[in-house]
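[step 3/7] fold_predict: job queued, chain A
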Amino acid sequence: MFFFGAMKKIFTVMVAAFVCLAAFAQGHATYKVKEHDFGYIKEAKGAVSHTFELKNTGDKPLVIMQVVTSCGCTRPEFPTKPIKPGKTAKIKVTFNPAGRSGAFMKPVKVKTSGDEGRTTLTIRGTIIPRK
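[step 4/7] structure written:
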């Protein structure tokens, strides 16, 4: 009888440890790069785009919950379906230089369900105005 009581306690501790570990398992977004420099762009040529790539390096699915830009001149596109562990996703950021000139730097804030929470991506460049 003592043997079964001890086995029951060991089993209970193992289950509790597994539950605790499972609670900490999460997705994790790892970005190839977090910044892109367009260099010199001509206002007359219109909008420019860059695609940031992220990989779920965690052990649970990852969801991109929100992508926020600082102004209407910058537009993000991103997937809303969960990203499986080991898989990649792309966040496309389009910048419209119309009516602007000179240097610019725009933050793109990404919120995921992963343990990293929020990440700031950045696009930058210099706009050559119309003549």
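[step 5/7] annotate
The CA atoms of residues 6 and 12 lie 10 Å apart.
The chain has one helix and eight strands.
exit 0
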